[in-house]
Amino acid sequence: MKALKYGIPRLLLTVSALIALLAATTLLANERLVLSRDAQAPFGEVTGVLDVLVDPGFDDAKVSITVDGQTIAGGLRYPYRVTVDFGSRAIEHKISITAVTSQNKKVRWTETINRGLLPLSVKVKPVDLAARLFEAVVTSPKDDPIASPSPRICWPRGSSRSQ
């Protein structure tokens, strides 16, 4: 009788815990970014871990996804889904999707997310090589603590002067 008395509450507790875990997994699901040939590019800032879903516009496709020139998934079959971490800062990313039909016809399109939010970069180009004069073009994210970058010119002997 004791086994019956303690067995039912344990079973109910186990079932309750299992239901709670299943409910929690739906709450912890990633946000979704849906990319389609016919839809507009995503609007707003895209950050964090997202489920990238692709709608190629036809059935039985093999889909490849490339982010900033790096292939992150190739030969995906339905449901054409991959999880991508875009980082904690909103930075411009170019996502290229290539879908191949069963008749080996390719469809390719590109989406740009976080357009205009460029990462920290410095591009140096020569203005006058004989005078050793160069121009530096600097970009930085909008939440970067640098207020305005001040370019420095390096002289031949290693000394430097601020401009």
Second rung of CATH, namely the architecture of the largest domain: Sandwich
Q: Regarding CATH, which class of the largest domain?
A: Mainly Beta
Structural class: alpha+beta
Report how far the terminal alpha carbons are from each other: 90 Å
Indicate the mean pLDDT.
77
Attribute tags:
single chain; alpha+beta; Immunoglobulin-like; four-stranded antiparallel beta sheet
Tell me briefly what this model is.
With 163 residues, this protein is α+β, with helices and mostly antiparallel strands. The chain folds into two domains: 31-113, Immunoglobulins (Immunoglobulin-like), CATH 2.60.40.10; 121-162, no CATH class.
Describe the structure.
The protein folds into two domains: about 80 residues, Immunoglobulin-like (Sandwich); about 40 residues, no CATH class. Helices cover about 15% and strands about 40% of the residues. The chain is built from one helix and eleven strands; from the N terminus they run αβββββββββββ. The strands form four sheets. It has a four-stranded antiparallel sheet, with no helix packed on it. A three-stranded mixed sheet has the order 1-2-5, with no helix packed on it. The chain is flat, with a radius of gyration of 26 Å. The model has no long low-confidence stretch (mean pLDDT about 75).
